[in-house]
Amino acid sequence: MREPVLKAVASPPKILWGPFLPVLLNLGVQFPIMFVSIGAFEINPIIFVASILLVHGIIVLWGTKEPHISSMIQAFGQTYRVTKNLYKTKGNKFAP
Predict the structure, then answer these.
(1) Looking only at Cα atoms, what is the longest distance across the chain?
(2) Which helix (H) or strand (E) covers residue 32, if one does?
(3) 43 pLDDT exceeds 80?
(4) Reduced to 3 DSSP states, what percent helix, strand and coil does the chain have, rounded to the nearest 5?
(5) 3-state secondary structure of 59
(6) Coil, helix or strand for 82?
(7) 17-21: long-range contacts, CB 8 A cutoff, minimum separation 24
(8) The whole model's pTM is what?
(9) How confident is the model at residue 23, as a pLDDT?
């Protein structure tokens, strides 16, 4: 009965054999750059395809070493939120 919950926690989501967030960031950045470069500068797309595959391979290897990297990136983004309960005095004071 606990197996589906443990499996969902122990196996984070993957897309194309890599961690979800880094793969989407890779494809979301490199494909627009590739299409703009092809359209504006008539650059050969083979260079970009090789770059996409190389970086994707690195992300897949990184994901095998640290499968929860997507969660770590999301948690890192949430740590830089500025709390509204701090006010300036000598040092920071917390006002609940």
Answers:
(1) 60
(2) helix 20-41
(3) yes
(4) 65, 10, 25
(5) helix
(6) coil
(7) 17/60, 17/63, 18/56, 18/59, 18/60, 18/62, 18/63, 19/59, 19/62, 19/63, 19/67, 19/68, 19/69, 19/70, 20/70, 21/69, 21/70, 21/73, 21/74
(8) 0.72
(9) 96
Look up residue 90 and give its amino acid: K
Torsion of CA 81, 84, 85, 87, to 10 degrees: 110
Question: In angstroms, rounded to a whole number, what is the distance separating the alpha carbons of residues 75 and 19?
Answer: 15
Tell me the two tokens of residue 12: 């984070």
Hey, what are 93's tokens? 């004071």
Residue type, 34: M
Angstrom distance (rounded) from CA 60 to CA 48: 18
